[in-house]
Amino acid sequence: MNVETIREYCLSKKGATESFPFDDVSLVIKVMNKMFALIDLEGANSIALKCDPERAIELRDYYTSIEGASHFNKKYWNRINFGMDADDKLIKELVDHSYEEVIKKFTKKLRAEYDALP
């Protein structure tokens, strides 16, 4: 997996936008202004994704490329290092999972706005 491929995949999600709110090397991808991914452009070798707490621990136990995300609540966020034992299919599935984890926490108002998007 490379940075541009994962960036394009994240941005293909309904309502997804990108920004640099922290610095010029941490690309944040949001849906309805809620972060679901952070791509490290400096090292260009990892992505932080939200995850169900139980699944987050299982993934860390099974894959050497997945660990608790630095500077995030490690209960809910994993960092996936590219080029190790997590293949492209798994990384895309984890992006999908992160996106869904964020959407399911939307308020009714935000959900209505999201549903109204094309």
From TrEMBL:
It comes from the Bacteria. Keywords: DNA-binding. One of its GO terms (molecular function) is DNA binding. The keyword NADP does not apply. Pfam families: YjbR. InterPro entries: YjbR, YjbR-like_sf, YjbR/MT2646/Rv2570-like. This is MmcQ/YjbR family DNA-binding protein. The gene is yjbR_3.
